[in-house]
Every structure is written in C-alpha cells, then in structure tokens.
Amino acid sequence: xxxxxxxxxxxxxxxxxxxxxxxxxxxxxxxxxxxxxxxxxxxxxxxxxxxxxxxxxxxxxxxxxxxxxxxxxxxxxxxxxxxxxxxxxxxxxxxxxxxxxxxxxxxxxxxxxxxxxxxxxxxxxxxxxxxxxxxxxxxxxxxxxxxxxxxxxxxxxxxxxxxxxxxxxxxxxxxxxxxxxxxxxxxxxxxxxxxxxxxxxxxxxxxxxxxxxxxxxxxxxxxxxxxxxxxxxxxxxxxxxxxxxxxxxxxxxxxxxxxxxxxxxxxxxxxxxxxxxxxxxxxxxxxxxxxxxxxxxxxxxxxxx
Length: 305
Prior knowledge:
This protein is an all-alpha fold. Helices cover 82% and strands 0% of the residues. Helix 6 packs across helix 7 (191-205). The model is unreliable at 43-55 (pLDDT under 50). Residues 162-289 form the Type II secretion system protein GspF domain.
C-alpha cells in the first residue's frame, strides 16, 4: 500500500513537472511569435533585434504561472530591493525559484525514501508536506537574511558616506557633484551605498526630484541612519543653506549613537556574564574556599561520634 502511494505521488509530481514544462514551452513559443510579428510590423529583421539584456529566463517565465497577492508581491519586492536586486527580472526569477524548489525537494525526498525503504516509507505522508513547505519558505528566509545583512552593511557605511560628502563639499564641489562622485568613484570604500546612490542619480538624470528620490530610497532600505541623512539632504535641496556644518554634526551624532549602542551591549554582556558566573564559577569557588572547612567539621564530628 505504501509503495503504491509513493509511486502515485511520484507520478503526480512528474505529471505536474511535465505540464509546467509544456506550459513554459507554449508561452515561449507565443512570445516568439509576438516578437516576430512586432518586428515585421516595425520592419526590423532579425529575431534578436528586440531582445534586451535581462530578458525573462525560464525561471522568470515559471513565476507567471502562480500570481501572488498584491500585498505579498509588494513585500517580496521590498525585500529584493533591500537585498540589492531591483529589476523585474530578479523578482520573476525569485518567484520561479520558489515554485520550482517545492516539487524538486519533494521528488528528492521520495527518491531518498525509496532508496532507504523499510519503515521510512510510512513517514512519507508526514515528510512530504513538510519538505514542500520548506522548499517554499527557504528562499524567502535566505532573502530575508541577505536583506538584513545588507542593511547592517549600509548602516556601517553611512558615517563614511557622510564624511565623504563633507570632505568633497569642503573641497569646493556642489551637493549634486559630491553625490555623483561618491556614487561613481568610491565603490570600493562604500559599495552598498554607492550602488544605491548610482540608482538615485540615474533617476535624477531622468527628471526625478532629488530630495524626494533620496528619501524614497532610504525608506525602502529601512535603515534609520540613512533615512536621517537623506532627510537632511532633502531639507538642504528644498530650503538651501550651508550643508557642511549639518554634515559634521550628523557624523558626530552617528558616532554618539554607536558609542551608546556599544555601552548597551557591554551592559547586557555583563548581565549575561553574571548569570554564567553564578551558575558555573560560584559553585567551584565555594568548593575551593569552603571545602576545607566543611571537611574539618566533618572529621571533628566523626571523631566525637
């Protein structure tokens, strides 16, 4: 009975995989026909004339088979931007990877259970949904970890970003020129911030408002220090004025915040060490200090008895 169930599940998963492959092939074929028709309309020979870098691959095409809710799609897109991936191709590839990983992990588990055999096959009805859920959630967990790591990196780079802007402005550059210089010439020093500023400067060149674009970028990344810096720059763009003194005060404020956080971490570490000392060190210390006294009292009472 268990073997029949296993083979039925394998057949179902293979059927689903074949169906997805056929649907992808049909979608690609229809896309090629539409591209060829558009090229004939525009009188542009050649199949590759309209292809652009980053055109959807097969993973991106797979994501179109499972549309997400707008709320979930917006949350995933925000995480991708925080992780440094902002193209629509990146979102489609990530969604396609999640869809592909579920049947792939389930098939791998079925093959493993079939090789092991015995009572392991009886656990397949419990393990298969668990592995399928893990296949769906693991890419999301990995994306969140990468987004948090990149946020921490940007948080560490913000003081250096403010220092570079202050030095460039004191050297005689305007704020726009300073931002462009940081975005293009300092990628080895602050790579994450330079990447984000490059995107902002391209949007500004296309006509976007400087302060609003900077603040929108900072809010998307969800780094408080960067939001404060971009809010200050937005005020400078809106009302004008000297930016060197606010940048100097902002850098001092960032270092004060970092010192306070380090002091809090040291205080928490001291509290944790107190618990460790009480649990592990104090009994050993009590045995060393009070042990001879207890032994002497025990011998005295034994001698009296």
